[in-house]
Design a protein that fits this description.
With 192 residues, this protein is mainly α. It is 71% helix and 3% strand. It is built from five helices and two strands, in the order ββααααα. Strands 1-2 form a two-stranded antiparallel ribbon. 17% of the residues are buried.
C-alpha cells in the first residue's frame, strides 16, 4: 500500500478530498463529459477548507460552552477574556495547521478572518450575558442583605445601645464577607 500523500495539481489531498475528486470524475464520465481537473480540485479544496473552518469553530463553541455554559457564569471578566484569547488562538492555529498544505493563501486569509469575526461576536455576546448575570446576582445578594436587616423600633436616642450597634456591625461584616465570596463579575463592586 502506497501511504504517501496524494498530490494533484500541486495540492496535497486528504483522503476525503481524494474521494470527492474521484466522485467528481466518475460523475463527469457518467455524464459523458470530460472532467475539468483544475476547477474540480479548486471546488474540493474550497469545500474541505470550509469544512475545517466550520469544525474548528464548533470546537471553539463547545469549549466555551463547557467553560462558561449554564450555571458556570457569571465569572470575573478577566477570566472570560483570558480564556477567549487562549481558545481563539488555539482554534486559529489548529485551522492553519490543518489547511496549510492544500489551501490557497487568499482563501485562508478570508476564512481566518471570518473565523475570528464569528469567535469575537460569540465572545461579545458571552461578555454581555456575563455582565447581565453579574448585575442580577449582585443586586440579589444586596437585596437579601436589606431584607435580612430588621431594625428595631427606636423611640429615643436612649434606645440606641452600644451592644445594638455592635450586633448590627457584626451582621453587616458577615454579610460583606459572604458578598465578597459569592458575588462575581463586573458588578461585584458596583452594586454594593
Amino acid at each position: 500500500i502506497d501511504m504517501r500523500p496524494k498530490i494533484v495539481d500541486g495540492k496535497v489531498l486528504t483522503a476525503s478530498m481524494f474521494l470527492n475528486l474521484l466522485f467528481e470524475y466518475l460523475e463527469a464520465l457518467n455524464n459523458e463529459s470530460a472532467p475539468n481537473v483544475h476547477s474540480t480540485i479548486e471546488r474540493i479544496i474550497s469545500a474541505e477548507t470550509r469544512k475545517i473552518c466550520d469544525n474548528v469553530l464548533y470546537e471553539y463553541y463547545d469549549q466555551m460552552d463547557e467553560e462558561f455554559g449554564g450555571d458556570r457564569i457569571p465569572v470575573e471578566e478577566e477570566h472570560l477574556r483570558n480564556k477567549f484569547k487562549e481558545l481563539s488562538a488555539e482554534v486559529i492555529k489548529k485551522f492553519e495547521v490543518q489547511t496549510r498544505e492544500f489551501a490557497e493563501v487568499a482563501q485562508l486569509i478570508d476564512l481566518r478572518n471570518e473565523l475570528l469575526e464569528k469567535m469575537e461576536a460569540d465572545f461579545e455576546s458571552r461578555l454581555q450575558l456575563n455582565d447581565d448575570l453579574s448585575q442580577n446576582l449582585c443586586k440579589r445578594i444586596v437585596n437579601e442583605l436589606f431584607n435580612s436587616f430588621n431594625l428595631p423600633a427606636l423611640l429615643s436616642m436612649e434606645d440606641i445601645r452600644e451592644s445594638l450597634i455592635l450586633e448590627y456591625k457584626q451582621k453587616f461584616l458577615l454579610f460583606y464577607d459572604n458578598y465578597k465570596k459569592f458575588a462575581k463579575g463586573t458588578h461585584k463592586c458596583k452594586d454594593f
